Amino acid sequence: MNLSDKNKQNLLTTALVAEYGLTKVQHIPKSIKVDEVFADHVVYNVDGQLYKTSYEIDEVGRATFGDPEKVLATKLYNTMEAMTVENRRALLQPALDTHLGVGKDEHLWIEDMTEAEVFYRRDNQMYKVNYTIADDDVITFGESVKVAKQVLYKPLESLRETYSEIIQEAGRRNASLDSTRIKKIVEICQELLSTER
Predict the structure, then answer these.
(1) pTM score, whole prediction
(2) Would you say 87 and 75 are in contact if contact means Cβ atoms under 8 Å apart?
(3) Which of 28, 97, 166, 171 is the most buried (most CB within 10 A)?
(4) SS3 133
């Protein structure tokens, strides 16, 4: 059955509501909302907990689901390169809180991250910690190290001076390519004009 994403989301919401024995307007004690629909699975929210499950929609529009599993973020990706910054943050924040034993009254904030390091603030101190995310989404952290945040602003003129040779070389190469292209265009035009006579 070929459905638009919105229709598929509505159909899956209705089917999940039926699966959990809810009504759409019932908010207490349970509510359900489809967060993301993918080609072969759906991520949905039940009372604040996210779940991922496979689904199939038959020819009459009836959805069936696989076994649900709890997840930390709505968007799940197969590679770290495909994961957005916010989704990486959503995976790392609770794992880092657990790893460091952050209590209810404590605050830990991820300020920045790369594909291998997290820079976070805890008790007004900046730290850096290495991490890896395994294929099964298990996150492993290294030892935290205190760091100082440094921001560097350079004037554009400084950058132009630094990279002027590179820019000039790129200009020369493009000019050379352009002149070769122009010569070919002129040759083709002359050939066309000579064949029309």
Answers:
(1) 0.41
(2) yes
(3) 97
(4) strand
* Euclidean distance between CA atoms 83 and 87, whole angstroms: 6
Structural domain spans, the chain: 5-71, 85-147, 154-197
User: Residue 165, SS3?
Assistant: helix
**Per-state percent for the chain, helix, strand, coil, to nearest 5:** 35, 25, 35
The partner residues of 130 in beta bridges, in order of sequence, read 117
Q: What is the CA radius of gyration of the chain?
A: 28
Contact 26, 16 (CB under 8 A): no
Indicate the residue type of 73. A
* Euclidean distance between CA atoms 173 and 43, whole angstroms: 50
Going residue by residue through the chain, which has 197 residues, state the pLDDT in tens, using 9 for 90 and above.
656 566 677 778 878 777 777 665 544 436 788 877 777 788 888 777 778 889 888 888 888 899 888 877 655 444 444 555 667 777 888 889 889 998 878 888 888 888 889 999 998 899 999 998 887 778 899 999 999 988 777 676 766 676 777 777 777 777 777 777 778 887 887 777 777 65
35 closest CA partner among 64, 62, 12: 12
